[in-house]
Amino acid sequence: MFSTDLPPLPTGRAWVHGALERLAQEAARSADTHLLKLDLPAFPGIDLYLKDESAHPSGSLKHRLARSLFLYALCNGLLHAGQTVVDASSGSTAISEAWFARLLGLPFIAVMPACTAPGKIRDVQALGGQCDLVENPADVPAVAAGHAERGACFLDQFGLAERATDWRGNNNIAESILGQMAREPSPQPAWIVCSAGTGGTSATIGRYLRYRRLPTRLCVAEPSGSAFVEGWRRYDRAAMASQPTLIEGIGRPRVEPGFVFEVVDQVLEVPDAASIAAVWLLEELLGRRYGGSSGTQFVACLRLAAAMQACGERGSIVSLLCDRGERYAETLFDRGWFAARGIDTAPWDARLRAVLRDGRGFDEPMP
Ligand SMILES: *Cc1c(COP(=O)(O)O)cnc(C)c1O
Predict the structure, then answer these.
(1) pLDDT tens readout for residues 53-75
(2) What is the per-residue pLDDT across 143-184, written as a single tens digit (0 to 9) for each?
(3) Which of 1, 63, 116, 160 is the most buried (most CB within 10 A)?
C-alpha cells in the first residue's frame, strides 16, 4: 500500500530548484541579439544579415550553450550545491560557463591550451574562474576528466552541445534568426552560414530548418583542412584535420560528437589569412571588432553571394558574429603576431575588397 507520508523534498532538490529559478530569471532579463543588415551595393537583390552574438552578457554565442549545459546538468541530477564545475575549452565557452557558475555561486575550472589568447584567460579569471593551462592541447580532455574524477561536475561542451540545446524551439539561435527575418524582403534565407566548434550551432540550425520545412540551405564555413571539412565529404567520423588553424573556437582537429554532417548542405574552406583579413575588413564595415570565426563566415558569405549573383539568384544570406574582437587584441589584431606565424593578409585584403566593389572575384565552382 502507499504511505500518505511523503518524504520531504530532499535538501539537494531545493538547491536545484533555486538554481533553475536563477537561470529562468537570467533568461527573462536577457534580450535577443541583434540581426544587423550589411548593405552590399555590388550585390543587388542579395541581402546579407549578421547576427551579433557578441552582444550576450558573456560576449559570445557560447552564452546560449553555457545556459543549456547548466540546465542539462541540473535537470539530469548531475550538479549539486557547492560542487565545482569543470570544462575543457579554448576560451569562449569557458568565459560563458564562468559567468553562469558565478551566477549560481559555484567554483569553476577551465582546462585550456596554454596558447589560448591571453585576453580570454583574463576574462575567465575576472569572473572568478580558475584556468588550468595545459601545454599540449591534446591533453586537455584527460586533464578535464581528472577534475571530474575528483568530484567536479563535467559540463562536457563537446560531448553534450548537440543534445543540450532544444532544437525544436525555446529561444534557440535558429528560431531567433527566422523570427527576426520575418518582415524582410526574403524572409526565408537562401543560406545560413555558421562554423563548427562543438557543432552545436550547426546541428541546431540544420535540424530546425527541417523541422520548419524550409528550403534554406546550411553552409558550414571552416578553416582549411579542419576535421569538419575532411569528415563531411564522406560522413567519416574518424577523419582528422589535415592542418592546424589560428582561428580559435572552430576548426577542430577531430570529429566531435556534436558534428551532425547529415544536416549540412555545403562546407566551404577558408584559409586563415582570408579569415584574418576579413576581421579587419569587418571592423571597417561595422565599426566594431569581432573574432576570427566571424571573419571565416564573412568570407564564405561573400563566396555564396558571388555564386548566387553569377547564376542570377536573389535572396538573403544570414551569418553570425560569434564573439568580441577585444579578446584577440594580442593575436589577430596584432599584425606582428600573425606575421610571425607566416600569415600575409595583404593578397586576401585586396581580393575581398575587389569582391565587395565588383560583386565578382571568387572563381571556384559552387553548388
Ligand atoms: C564555439 C564557437 C563557434 C562554433 O560554435 P559551435 O556551436 O560550438 O559549433 C564559433 N565561433 C566561436 C568564437 C566559438 O567560440
Answers:
(1) 999 999 999 999 999 999 999 99
(2) 999 999 999 999 999 999 999 988 887 778 999 999 999 999
(3) 63
Name the CATH topology of 61-162.
Rossmann fold (3.40.50)
Which sequence spans correspond to the domains of the chain? 30-56+167-358, 61-162
Helices in the chain by DSSP H: which ranges? 11-29, 62-75, 92-104, 118-126, 140-149, 157-164, 173-180, 200-211, 227-234, 272-286, 292-310, 335-339, 346-358
Alpha carbon of 345 to ligand 1 centroid (Å): 23
User: Which of 176, 198, 320 has most ligand 1 atoms within 8 Å of CB, for mutation?
Assistant: 198
200 lines ligand 1 (CB under 6 A): yes
Specify which residues 52 forms β-bridges with.
321
Q: pLDDT tens for residues 127-141?
A: 999 999 999 988 999
- Nearest-CA residue for atom 15 of ligand 1: 249
Residue 197, ligand 1, Cβ within 6 A: yes
Spatial distance between the Cα atoms of 261 and 237, rounded to a whole number of angstroms: 9
The CB of 323 under 6 Å from ligand 1? The reply is: yes
- DSSP 8-state code for residue 109: E
pTM value is 0.94
Instruction: Compute the CA torsion angle 216, 54, 321, 351 (nearest 10 deg).
Output: 170
Q: What angle do CA 224, 114, 98 make, to 5 degrees?
A: 95
CA of 330 to the centre of ligand 1 (A): 20
Residue nearest to atom 2 of ligand 1 (CA): 249
Determine contact, residues 263/218, Cβ cutoff 8 Å. yes
- Assess whether the C-beta atom of 68 lies below 6 angstroms from ligand 1: no
Q: How far is the CA of 199 from the centre of ligand 1 (A)?
A: 8
- The rounded distance, in Å, linking the Cα atoms of 243 and 227 is 9
Residue to mutate (ligand 1; options 250, 264, 328; most atoms within 8 A of CB): 250
